[in-house]
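User: Can you recover a sequence for this backbone? Please restate the input before giving your answer.

Assistant: Of course. Working from this structure:
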């Protein structure tokens, strides 16, 4: 997904930044803020991909070692099973964060970034700056966590 850097592309991005929803007491997104946000999300995406690859390689190595080692005691077997489960859980967590990160980038591109997916109200610029992958406003997030 290449970005245009000509003046028309810059103008379109500036218009998009101004079009993103913010709270009534917040300043609109500036093109610089939006560019920094995109870079943060892209950097997170690259880091998460590397961590997923590393975790998958570790899982493969643990599986290989578990079939190579015959005659080990129950403690070693249990310890290796725990390591495998831990690595698989870590990889799954990273995949979920990667999905959220890519979804945030997509929402920026389609102009829905900053809109609560549950109620349609603004999420809040301050919340998005603190947690750029947020898809729910504070009120809806609190309701979700109470369930």
């Amino acid at each position: 997904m290449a970005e245009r850097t000509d003046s028309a592309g810059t103008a379109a991005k500036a218009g998009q930044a101004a079009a993103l929803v913010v709270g009534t007491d917040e300043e609109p997104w500036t093109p610089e803020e939006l560019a920094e946000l995109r870079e943060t999300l892209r950097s997170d995406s690259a880091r998460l991909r590397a961590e997923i690859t590393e975790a998958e390689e570790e899982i493969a190595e643990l599986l290989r070692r578990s079939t190579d080692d015959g005659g080990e005691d129950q403690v070693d077997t249990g310890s290796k099973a725990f390591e495998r489960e831990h690595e698989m859980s870590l990889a799954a967590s990273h995949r979920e964060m990667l999905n959220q990160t890519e979804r945030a980038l997509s929402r920026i591109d389609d102009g829905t970034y900053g809109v609560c997916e549950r109620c349609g109200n603004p999420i809040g610029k301050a919340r998005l700056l603190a947690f750029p992958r947020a898809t729910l406003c504070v009120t809806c997030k609190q309701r979700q966590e109470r369930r």
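That completes the design. Residues 31-68 form the longest helix (38 residues).
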